[in-house]
Amino acid sequence: MNLVGWLIYSEQDSEQNTAYINWFIDEAAIQGVTLKLVLREELTIGIYQNKQTIFYNNQQVHLPDFAVVRTVEPLLNMVLESMGINVFNSSQVSAICNNKALTHYYMNKLSIPMVDTIFMKKKNCVQMPGMPLPFIVKGTSGRGGRQVHMIKDEQEWERCIADDIFASELIIQSSKNIQLGKDVRVFVVGSQIIGAVLRESRSDFRSNFKLGGSATWYPLNHHELTLLNKIINAFDFGMVGIDFLLDTKGKLQLNEIEDVVGSRTLSAVSDINILKKYITHITKRLGHN
Question: How much is the pTM?
């Protein structure tokens, strides 16, 4: 019997990622997998008659063999798992990697190098943090370079906390000895390092491709591969992007891990078909390859 999977997107994100969704569905079909786009708005999850329940368009439905969740909602991943569905990425990966503070907490336990980082609730930011200027403020759940602010003086700090940043939970990070406007994204499928890209911006301290940054292939050295494998061996990844800042000596410093990672930059600098590799990983995990 062929595998059947759900590819879960919010309606808004599905409209913005039509080509990527079609590519995903086509790659699955090539490998004999039926992958169906399911909008998050069409799903109802919760407790019904004392059981974990999921309805599709308010109806009970035959559940899929697996789900690829492309929304940021760890509880959704958890409910799907509780009903016996194989979920990519897992609820654990989703919960940790969609919270920058938790990501840094767990990566520090693995001795992964990172800049000085303060965890803070916005409501507790009544005074300047004990971090040398300039520093960077981020919402813990921000993505794509959003909710990220460079603070150069006390006035910018006060404006950021009062008006500019909407997140309730923050991380505050040192920018000392960091090459601003540069980062390295490493694409990982399962336990396999697929490749890495260097993202750069000449006009912004953020290097995100969507914000106008450029991308080039980044060859990983032995030390960097060893560092990455420490992270990979500690998690059960489906497909993620592990992002690093570069210090002034060119050494990697953890930035974040993207759970719902896109692959525009990888496609821009290589002919690697990462979705083909991802479908192959899923089928192997489910014992169908």
Answer: 0.93
